[in-house]
Amino acid sequence: MSTLSVPAVLVVEMVNASSTSGLAAQAAGRLNHPNIVAIYEYGEDGGTAFIAMEYVEGRELKDYFDKSERFSLTEIARLMGELLSALDHAHGNGIVHRDIKPANVIFVNGRPKLADIGLVAHLDQRSFVGTEGFIPPDGPGTRRADVYALAKVLYEISTGKDRMDFPELPDDLPEGTVRKKWQAFNTIICQAAEPRVEECAIDSAE
Hints:
Blueprint lengths: L8 E5 L5 H10 L10 E7 L2 E7 L4 E2 H6 L6 H20 L2 E2 L8 E4 L2 E4 L6 E2 L20 H17 L16 H17 L14
Antiparallel strand pairs: 1-3, 2-3, 4-6, 5-8, 6-7
């Protein structure tokens, strides 16, 4: 006898949903990436919009930061690679996240997943959604804005400092070879989180 495995589903109401956000949620449902919490369905019932998404149990990246738990450079590099891969997949399908922050990155069995996908929008749909400090001066809704936000997340977990302190560095930098690697990594973060669009050297997840 065969056994059917049914994924756990979380259904949430979409507040202030519009036809545009509904279309974006439907488009996000076509995303299929191991580092993105899956959206299974978008619908409306009695004028109330909802999305059914993958139910995951894990630990928010914000919890690590709040408890001052630091990651090694190797761990941060892996985290960066996996989340950039997730963003590249979303952007390649015309979708931006718009609210990347530590609370929206959840570790499930050691794997980081981008959550709160209900806030996604079509690429370049310019509406103000996001969290202060993770939004570039030119606003959310672009590839660059998502990458900028991820860079601020990486800044927080690599330095232990708040995003509002960027680009200030901690006093307890390591010495020797590790210090050089850390400085090289920090250069990448600074390039991606450059507030001036014309000076930004990294503006996509590719």
